[in-house]
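Researcher: Good morning. I'm working through a list of sequences from a screen, and I'd like to move beyond sequence-only analysis. For each chain I'm collecting a predicted structure so we can compare shapes side by side. This is the next one on the list. No need for commentary yet; just the structure.
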Amino acid sequence: MNLVMQLFQGVTMATLAEGMALADRAGLQQRDVMEILALTNMACPLFLEKGNGKKKHFNIKLRLRGFLLKLLILIPELDSV
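Model: Good morning. Structure tokens for this chain:
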């Protein structure tokens, strides 16, 4: 179950990062994007905290590395199912 939840969180964070990069290239301010996001049904606490910079020590590479290591451990177990 933990692996599934981490997958959801990792995909969510990657989506936020890509969206913010696109907004930046389009000349939109991060603050404006987050204000609009907060008005939608996608306004989950994870998006709002990360997007507003409240949790500054997030490192996507480390999170993905940990996820991939867990996945590699799980793959042999899936073959036996």
